[in-house]
Design brief:
single chain; 82 residues; mainly alpha; 3 helices
């Protein structure tokens, strides 16, 4: 079992918070927020890929992403659900 760094969990939570903010937006506001979310999501995926390559623990990027998402959601509710 690989210990998931807190910075990866933080990046995942930020991306999810930004995704949740898309709810109810339209037109220009939606597109502006989609760009914010996309940037946060890309930062998360880049960090996950770098961590997976660096660990050498035999975990794929997908496995690391799954572990991070599980860790980020443990004890937290989905920010998209009110």
């Amino acid at each position: 079992m690989v210990t998931i760094p807190s910075d990866l969990i933080r990046l995942e939570r930020i991306a999810e918070i930004e995704r949740a903010k898309l709810a109810g937006l339209k037109d220009e506001e939606f597109e502006a927020q989609r760009c914010v979310w996309s940037s946060a999501d890309q930062a998360f995926h880049a960090a996950v890929a770098e961590f997976a390559a660096r660990t050498g623990a035999g975990l794929s990027r997908e496995a690391v992403e799954r572990e991070v998402r599980n860790a980020a959601r443990r004890g937290d509710e989905d920010p998209a659900v009110e």
